[in-house]
């Protein structure tokens, strides 16, 4: 990998502290970034280099997935310098340029520059423009712009932002982070399909009955009320992470494939996604908002009682949708997607339900088979399991499901940001969100945003600690969401009843 300078906007912020410094440190420990590198951190706060370096050391102690070795940390932070800068002030960019060039000369770097924008999206266009006008974009090496989500808040604003950025950086130079694409198991999906003939052969509507993609969280809105109450689950999770998971699961790639091929195939999935007409939305989309409840034995408050939330907020903290991909591979197969906060457990997973085994096993005595399920666990654990049927030794003529499992604890794997920063430094854009995908995703959700804004859909409530509103289960008709655990309150209630019977 070529040595580079990282110019980090938002270096004093939360994301940098919790994710970016630990990711860089882990890459450093694994020898995945060159031993000579430069990071220049930016923010309005008047920090010294020493203060900045001690801030990073503290962040590593608090948030690194591996216990940091003190000597390595001391070595690592030597690469960091701080420069106070207001994104709107052009003179600050002149000082920044001097520092970048000075560090490049000191360290013998060839002028490759990665500009990482870990700041609010309202600053993206201004920063891109200032980088070019200040001459920071003119360099003997490459230049790349890494930007965080959200990329717009609807189709029109995303297009406007992209138009502005495109004056200063080409599409090949823009790396839009969607951290779900950095998760090891998501990066593994492509390999899983084409390196396993067993899966590859079954990966279509011929054998699959439905695909279910879930991202359930137990956390609530936390300290992000100001952002979340204007964003909701649809913009925060669905338009980006969930549709990316859908594309990654359903695209069919040739082997081997290029980043360009991945991009083309993902785009083609979204182009085949059946658009929702306003009159169809209610039958395909369920929105919900959490009420008080119990999670991990703790009582938690409802969304409307969270600090900073508007008292009559109609914001969605849950969304479930039924989608159809009208292409040769997936026509006729429903894809179910749901995501929500304050749900029963933290689980991001993909479940592929195969067609009814009785269709192929035509013996009327055998009536009890469960469907085959391929389960891909993404977070917090990573793993793959396959549910198969075997003969039930105790009940002649019946089947029992068995699971073949492989599980890894996610803490042992590289974090999403490690993978993504590594790829951005190498110039591999495979696991970044390309403009085509972002635009098509916004285009698909736009009628739903409008229906939400017009209050044209019911807003169902659900208890914290549950699996979402009942309507999200009804959405599936005769299908069901697989692997949901019993809500705690009900489970506790059931136990109580059992006890009473025994007494
Ligand atoms: N935190 C998270 O978990 C996630 C965050 N994101 C995205 O990452 C980005 C950063 O988020 P986060 O770190 O949480 O935000 P914070 O509010 O914690 O940090 C914002 C950063 O922006 C800097 N900043 C604000 N205004 C200016 C300005 N006028 N000039 C220069 N710097 C400025 C602040 O520095 P200072 O105060 O010193 O000026 C600070 O470093 C956002 O786009 C967010 O949506 C995405 C996914 C998850
Ligand atoms: O982007 C976001 O993702 C997190 C969930 O990420 P995960 O890696 O823990 O699954 C979510 O909590 C947050 O609201 C959203 O902005």
CATH fold category name of the largest domain:
Dihydrodipicolinate Reductase, domain 2
The Rg value, from CA coordinates, equals: 25 Å
Total strands: 16
Number of helices: 16
Q: Could you name the CATH class of the largest domain?
A: Alpha Beta
Distance between the termini: 69 Å
Integer average pLDDT? 92
**β-strand amount:** 15-25%
Binned, the helix content reads 25-40%
CATH architecture of the largest domain: 2-Layer Sandwich
Bound compounds: NADPH dihydro-nicotinamide-adenine-dinucleotide phosphate, ligand LXAUTJHC
> Strand pairing plus helix content: what structural class?
alpha/beta
Compact summary:
β1, α1 (14-29) and β2 (38-43) form a beta-alpha-beta unit. The protein has helices at residues 14-29, 49-63, 70-77, 90-107, 124-133, 155-166, 184-194, 197-202, 225-228, 232-250, 259-272, 281-284, 416-426, 435-453, 470-474, 488-502, and strands at residues 5-9, 38-43, 80-84, 113-117, 143-147, 174-176, 208-216, 285-295, 298-300, 318-324, 334-340, 347-354, 373-379, 381-391, 399-409, 459-464. By secondary structure, it is α/β, with parallel strands linked by helices.
Structure commentary:
It is a single chain. This protein is α/β, with parallel strands linked by helices and 503 residues long. It folds into two domains: 5-148, NAD(P)-binding Rossmann-like Domain (Rossmann fold, 3-Layer(aba) Sandwich); 181-416 and 427-493, Dihydrodipicolinate Reductase, domain 2. The protein has helices at 14-29, 49-63, 70-77, 90-107, 124-133, 155-166, 184-194, 197-202, 225-228, 232-250, 259-272, 281-284, 416-426, 435-453, 470-474, 488-502, and strands at residues 5-9, 38-43, 80-84, 113-117, 143-147, 174-176, 208-216, 285-295, 298-300, 318-324, 334-340, 347-354, 373-379, 381-391, 399-409, 459-464. Strands 7, 8, 9, 10, 11, 12, 13, 14, 15 and 16 form a ten-stranded mixed sheet that branches. The chain starts with a strand and ends with a helix. The model is unreliable at 494-503 (pLDDT under 50). The chain binds NADPH dihydro-nicotinamide-adenine-dinucleotide phosphate and ligand LXAUTJHC. NADPH dihydro-nicotinamide-adenine-dinucleotide phosphate binds next to helix 1. It comes from Paenibacillus aquistagni. Residues 191-480 form the Glucose-6-phosphate dehydrogenase C-terminal domain. Its EC number is 1.1.1.49. InterPro entries: G6P_DH, G6P_DH_C, G6P_DH_NAD-bd, NAD(P)-bd_dom_sf.
